[in-house]
Amino acid sequence: MALDGKVAVVTGGAMGIGRAFTEILVQNGAKVAILDVNETAGKSLHEALTKQHGQGKTLFLTCDITSEEQTKAAFQTAAETFGGMDILCNNAGILNETTWEKSVSINLMGVIRGTYLALEHMNKLNGGRGGVIVNTASMAGLGPLPSCPVYTATKHGVIGFTRAMAAASTASGYGVRLNAVCPSFVQTELFSNILDRLGNLSHLADATKEMAEKFGMLSVSQVADCLLELVTDETKNGEALMMTPKFKKYMTFFAVGQ
Questions:
Q1: What DSSP string describes the chain?
Q2: Using one digit for the tens of pLDDT, what is the confidence trace for 181-219?
Q3: What is the per-residue pLDDT across 50-83, written as a single tens digit (0 to 9) for each?
Q4: Residue 103 — left, alpha, or beta (φ > 0 → left; ψ -120 to 50 → alpha)?
Q5: How much is the pLDDT for 253?
Q6: Residues 25/124, Cβ–Cβ less than 8 Å
Q7: pLDDT per position as a tens digit, 24-39
Q8: The pTM is what?
């Protein structure tokens, strides 16, 4: 998929990995709706990208993806403003073991909600143009992060949902590819405060630090490069792209019955 003129929506798009996603999509010619609960960061990014790339390249919309009403309205505004939707990055997420219900609501339910609402615009059977959805998972979705069992569970769920929906889209003729990006530790605010968010498993803080040192730290730009690959390569569907600073690997899965 060539990105010039395509329309993308990025949830959690104002900071960290989401900001890097927004920037690389705009740099490659896409128009991007930035969805985030942080209004200050979102407006700042929109203004910065407008100065760099001109008017009409980005749109900021305050949106809490745990809200069906807000998410649906934001997607509709993005589609009306830019003329449809071709790309969705379900990126919004948190890591906080002390608020596990909120973690499930944002990390997993938000991805499911975003996907179903995006399909209303992208599904070729409904008059959409097709496209691609990339969900931000984690290596914790492929193997356990012992100090963060809830985060691990949500990211396993994201990968399972992505795999199943990719197969369902293909079987149904939706024309929408779905992939997941699964980075190891990334240098973001989410990681920098991880040791304060372990709750009942705070005694595993040292083990978590050791694991991070073992794998090393990814930059947000490295993760964004992998997003670009998953978006533009039309052979990629149902893939979980695992990455560390030293390597990346596609985890290809097949639906039951294939």
A1: ---TT-EEEEETTTSHHHHHHHHHHHHTT-EEEEEES-HHHHHHHHHHHHHHH-TTSEEEEE--TT-HHHHHHHHHHHHHHHTS--EEEE------GGGHHHHHIIIIIHHHHHHHHHHHHH-GGGT---EEEEEE--GGGTS--TT-HHHHHHHHHHHHHHHHHHHHHHHHT--EEEEEEEESSBSSHHHHTGGGS-GGGGGGHHHHHHHHHHH--B-HHHHHHHHHHHHH-TT--SEEEEE-SS-EEEEE---TT-
A2: 999 999 987 777 888 899 999 999 999 889 988 888 999
A3: 999 999 999 999 999 999 999 999 999 999 999 9
A4: alpha
A5: 67
A6: no
A7: 999 999 999 999 999 9
A8: 0.95
> How many other CB atoms sit within 10 Å of the CB of residue 130?
16
Pairing of strands 248-252, 239-243: antiparallel
Cα separation, 160 vs 158, in Å, equals: 6
Q: What is the mean pLDDT of the chain?
A: 95
Does the pLDDT value for residue 257 go beyond 90? no
Q: By C-alpha distance, which of 254, 38, 220, 10 is closest to 135?
A: 10
Supply the residues annotated as catalytic. 151
> What is the separation of C-alpha 238 from the centre of its chain, rounded to a whole number of angstroms?
14
